[in-house]
Specification:
Radius of gyration: 22 Å
Number of strands: 14
Strand content: 15-25%
Number of domains: 2
CATH topology of the largest domain: TIM Barrel
CATH class of the largest domain: Alpha Beta
Number of helices: 13
Largest sheet: 10 strands, mixed
Distance between the termini: 62 Å
CATH architecture of the largest domain: Alpha-Beta Barrel
CATH superfamily of the largest domain: Aldolase class I
Strand order of the largest sheet: 3-4-5-6-9-10-11-12-13-14
Length: 412
């Protein structure tokens, strides 16, 4: 009897997978989520167009084919102004585009009643290095996203989008403004993707030169504490029918909240870049900067980094925030070099001059002098570690949009 029940259960599971409508062509990273598992806020109103699993389920229920899903995504990705029109005007534009592409007309009203764009730009602050955006979610909460402008010597322009994965953050890193908010809420994968779409539309409608070439999970929140939604959003970022970025153009930044999830990312999306915010290779010093570090040792982190390096075929990337008199001593340089030289493959260290925040002010934190930063850099390189000072991370200070400064102070 038990074997019969087990067989029936397996059969039903196979049937569900066989008939589940999923846009697989052009997909670089497969969904790891069970059907209907995506996070959504409990609220009235439409679901997001960027809730990929919900769209796929809806398509299956309405007897659509894979090419119909491609049509939906084509229309969704090329529509929606950052100067948001009324819901009625928005639906009319989408309806006209769907009809022009021979989408099944009987399904259009139902699609547009069930799905829509759910996030809105409420505030923009221009800065030297780009712009910071206050984005309102469907549930009324806010996050901040940053558009970072890069200009090459030949004049070519490209952009990086820095996205948030949580409203606030639970880690309470002593130097980070976001940590003062505490954790207010988790973002769905759709809300993460809508941030990118909004900034993409901003670049388009403002006729700015260049395109978005990179996405970094370095905004509000600890991405690995919202792993399922982050992973599903990476599926959309890299999908050729959506944003179409290569996986190596996506970076997930973590303070090392979970060695297990670092390894999971290596298994499930090995080409996605991982950036570990280390900030000190002395355990006691690291715990002062990152209180949550008490739950994970440097040895465990090193093991997880080595696992990721083997799976990805690349080395490890470390982020190191330099704070005057806190983690810029010679002992800190020596410990960092020792940690790096033990790792699997090459290690790249991004040295980030501390950006002033109210959180850091509570501890008297200050940015080291340029001379001290250069000296730390030189000692690290002399020890055989590849490192670069990211002076550009200071861009955005004038809009409180630099590393560690996101805290929603600009939202009214």
């Amino acid at each position: 009897m038990r074997s019969s029940i087990l067989f029936t259960s397996c059969l039903l599971s196979l049937i569900e997978r066989s008939f589940s409508l999923t846009l697989t062509s052009g997909q670089r990273i497969s969904s790891r989520m069970r059907k209907n598992q995506n996070h959504q806020d409990t609220r009235r109103g439409p679901k997001s167009f960027f809730d990929l699993r919900a769209i796929e389920q809806w398509g299956e229920e309405n007897g659509l084919k894979e090419h119909h899903l491609k049509t939906i995504y084509k229309v969704v990705m090329t529509s929606y102004s950052c100067d948001r029109p009324s819901r009625h005007e928005e639906s009319q534009v989408l309806q006209d585009k769907l009809r022009a592409l021979s989408f099944p007309q009987a399904c259009i009203p139902n699609l547009l009643s069930e799905f829509g764009y759910t996030c809105t730009i409420r505030n923009i602050q221009q800065s030297q290095g780009g712009a910071k955006f206050g984005i309102q979610l469907a549930n009324g909460k806010f996050v901040e996203s940053v558009l970072i402008r890069h200009e090459r010597n030949n004049g070519d322009v490209r952009y990086t989008v820095c996205v948030s994965s949580q409203v606030g953050c639970a880690k309470k890193c002593s130097f980070c403004a976001t940590g003062t908010m505490g954790l207010i809420g988790q973002l769905s994968s759709a809300e993460i993707l809508e941030q990118i779409h909004l900034l993409q539309q901003y670049v388009k409608h403002k006729n700015l030169p260049g395109k978005i070439r990179n996405v970094v999970f370095m905004g509000m929140g600890e991405p690995l504490d919202n792993y399922d939604a982050v992973h599903e959003s990476i599926r959309g970022i890299t999908h050729q029918c959506l944003f179409g970025l290569k996986a190596k153009k996506v970076t997930v930044s973590t303070v090392g909240s979970s060695a297990q999830k670092i390894k999971a990312l290596a298994d499930e999306a090995p080409q996605v870049c991982l950036a570990l915010s280390l900030h000190s290779a002395i355990q006691s010093s690291r715990e002062k900067l990152i209180p949550s570090a008490v739950s994970i040792s440097l040895e465990e982190l090193g093991d997880a980094l080595d696992y990721h390096a083997k799976k990805s075929g690349r080395g490890s990337m470390l982020e190191y925030l330099l704070i005057n008199g806190v983690n810029d001593s010679n002992d800190e340089v020596d410990s960092l070099a020792e940690f790096c030289l033990k790792r699997e493959g090459n290690v790249y260290v991004n040295l980030i001059p501390y950006n002033p925040t109210l959180a850091g002010d509570n501890f008297g934190y200050q940015t080291p002098s340029d001379e001290r930063i250069s000296d730390f850099h030189d000692k690290l390189k002399a020890a055989g570690v590849k490192a670069l000072v990211r002076w550009s991370t200071q861009n955005g200070r004038d809009a409180n949009g630099a590393c560690g400064q996101l805290v929603l102070t600009s939202i009214t």
